[in-house]
Write a structure and sequence with these properties.
Order of helices and strands: EEEHEHEE
Biased composition (Low complexity): 69-91
Number of helices: 2
Distance between the termini: 33 Å
Structural class: alpha+beta
Number of strands: 6
Strand order of the largest sheet: 1-3
Region (Disordered): 65-91
Helix content: 25-40%
Radius of gyration: 23 Å
Amino acid sequence: MRDVRNPTVHVPLSTDIDPVFHSTDRCPRLPTATEVVSRLAARRQGLTECTDCYEHRRRSQERALAVDLSSTPTASLSASSESGFSGFRIE
């Protein structure tokens, strides 16, 4: 299981390849020879994230956020003309 706080990425072993790292092993641009390092270590080496991997990761995060927001309970207050507050309901 990947650690969300310190994710691992795939760094090409060859220096002849673009200076990018890959955050998914399903990337079609992933070279055959890679080393697994932390994202921080890859960035310290001056590498940037592959555009395909970035888009895949961004879409995954958006889907996860949408699921989180859809399952978040909402609350509502109902007003009373006498006291100003008559109830609290969680939906």
